[in-house]
Fold this protein.
Amino acid sequence: QEVDMEAQEQKIRTVFEDPKSFNVKHPLYSAWTLWFDSPATKGRNLPQTPMSSFPQTPVPQTPGGVAALGWMEDIKSVITFDSVEEFWGVYNNIVPPSKLPNKANYYLFKQGIIPAWEDEANKNGGKWSIQLPKGKNERFIDTMWLNTMLAAIGETLDPLPEDGEEQPASLITGVIVSARPQFFRVSIWTRSAPSGAGGEDDALRERIEGVGRVFKTYVLGYPEAQKLAGPLATEVEFLSHKDSEKKGKQAKKIIV
Amino acid sequence: SGTKQPIAAPLPSALATARIIEDLGSVQYPEGIKSPRVELNVNAKQGKFRYDRDFLLQFMAICREKPDSLPPLDAIGLEPADQNYPMSRGGSGRRSSSAAM
């Protein structure tokens, strides 16, 4: 009898067999932190929020680091998780992007990376993004954001060589959804960005473009050739953070 | 869908105490549940797994309990979700065990 109980205890029970007393969970490739900000969080002093209890990423004492501190002041860390089961527990208990107030954002970043350009992991990177006007995309945006998060935590955004013994570190640092008065924006942040220098840079550009194609077709569900730009809508486009600072003047966008 | 879950659902503790799967190949899923796509994890190191969307979506309807460490949403300026399942009227009388601190 005792042996039976022990055997029962040892047996692997996933959440599919036993949603209440499962004994194994599916680890994610990386741990992820969900951050949130909205006009309601601005300037609010919330000593009991996770922002203060969460071990903060040390920000370098450079002008950029200090700027990031100001930027991060209103962004609250909601939770850090490292399993598939926990991801869904979070997802099923927060509001989807279609219900976010205007000017609110969700940021889902790998643990230890703050959702700011100034972070060491982001400063040489860039972002793929798409902007969709409100009014006709409410019924799509929630699925698009869910698919974006699933591809991020499942590590399928960055198509890696399947035969390679040593897989390069993932290019992805985080994903963001933003609600604005007139549009939604979904972004994927990358660790590096091509500079157009040729040589090894071409390989990086190809890899970045691969991420963009996965984003446009598999994640967002558009045919590869579809044109998306229109009033308040953009193509699926990539811009390095350095070029973003130039405000479009010499910005070299990549479009898929 | 009319059955009520007990308030003190044991799931959060299962979430907290369940151990990490180290070898995906050792897991047998019930009939009708798809395994993660094998080619995503050919050279996977222990606990470093990639998952396809179809596999991940199978958890959506099952893992509904709030994780213990999810803060009360109003404390971070986030309105609580308008859940798909019916809420009782009046609101304040109905708090999940984890949100009640």
In short: Confidence is low (pLDDT under 50) at residues 46-60 of chain A. Helices of chain A lie at 2-10, 50-53, 63-72, 84-91, 138-153, 200-219, 241-245.
